[in-house]
Amino acid sequence: MAKEKAKKSIFKRWWFWVIAVVLFIGIVGNLGEDETVESENDQIEDTNTDVNEEDQEDTTEDTEGAEEPVEEEEPAEEEESNAEDDVPTEYKSALNSAENYSDMMHMSKAGIFDQLTAEMGDQFPEEAAQYAIDNMEADWNENALKSAENYSETMHMSKASIYDQLTSENGEQFTDEEAQYAIDNIEADWNENALQSAKNYQETMDMSKEAIRDQLTSDYGDQFTQEQADYAVENLE
Predict the structure, then answer these.
(1) 101 in a domain, yes or no?
(2) Structural domains in the chain (count)
(3) At what angle do helices 176-185 and 140-155 cross, to 10 degrees?
(4) Tens-place pLDDT, residues 56-111
(5) Which of 219, 220, 228, 162 is nearest to 198 (CA)?
């Protein structure tokens, strides 16, 4: 048998070293690219940081340079004070009197005006009285109700008589709406009012029961209902 040729070591083959050189060059190239990418990223981050710092500086300068708006004081209170100073003293006195009549005597708007201008009243000029009426604060419905309650409690009047008294030109001079509000909201025992009126007629005028009944129900008298008058007469002594 012929002797077999001895095999060469792989390190002695030329193609092995060609492959090794190619791989080495590839590895070195990749390392260089990675370093280049990292360097470029660092440069981008540095650039962004510089831009942000410049923006912050510009914003700070704009904020510091901006002037705060100056708030102008509203002259409303001063103008109102000046307007009050221009009101004549007599007008102010008329207003004070009108408010007293409303608060203490629960008078109507028309009743207060008449009282302010009456020769037997306060004798203010009509202009001063009108100023008082225009500038006073009053609840006319409530005034009508208070007046109605006073007529019921002190004079024992009927519902119809109170309404007439509230709206009469010779009485309280409330409007129909104000008087109706009072009648709708008053709390009164009309039977008891009729009885008290009947007792007064009996004690002061010595009237008979039938005469008292007629007086209580008359349109020109007390204007109680028939039932209320009957209750009163039946409970007289």
Answers:
(1) yes
(2) 1
(3) 60
(4) 555 555 555 545 555 556 556 665 556 667 899 999 999 999 999 999 999 999 99
(5) 228
